[in-house]
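Sample entry (264 residues):
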Amino acid sequence: MYAQCPECLTIFSLGTNELGAAHGRVRCAHCNAVFDALLTLCERLPPEPITKLQRHAEQLTPPQLDVPVFRPNGGAQRALYFDPDERPRASERASGPPLFTRRPRRASGQRNRWWLFANFVLALTLGAEIAWAERARWIDHPRARTVLDSVCATVNCRLPLRRDRELLHLASRDIRPHPSVAGALIISATLHNAAAFTQPFPVVEITLSDLDEQRVAMRRFQPMEYVADADALAGGLGPSANAAIVFEVADPGKDAVAFEFRFE
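Predicted structure, serialized as tokens:
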């Protein structure tokens, strides 16, 4: 075979040993350039005068080889040509369908049952973890709470009080200077539960603001800070019930002209 150096255009004769040594990369003995001999590889030289050998066009897909010469077997190799009389007769061949038509053996049913059972246990565990993480939402959900109350009545358990802060309102509110403590204020209000169920006393957030509605002071009061009776605190605020609440706070100054309640 023949290949041409792209630098000095020298044409060389070469064989498979030179091509296979570096996967087609060779060095020109004339100009010392390294080039890919496969680009101009040919079996015969064109008629003289020769200028450049034709370069092979690049193909996106490799060419398919259609003329087989030899295929090694898994066992002892046989010659390419053999006597047909040496082939095993039909009576001597293994009985049964060919190997490529046989279906793979299915996994045992016992293994599948254990796999399904393990998936069921994992799914059940995941559902329980999600339900526990979202337990506050289920406890306060109206339909879910009805079911949970029925279950607790059967197994003799006690659920936390249901809450809906949208149904808590202020029936009245007032702010005035403290009668006995200088630099302090007394904030009083009447808390009304408009729900048809008992709710726990909420966390009360009081915000004092100026004329521009800018916050001057803010404080959150926990239920035990404004409900002194432990039994009343544990029992919660009954349906349609009112509770008088009083807060003592430091006077933030004359800029505080408005106050706002928020329940959490």
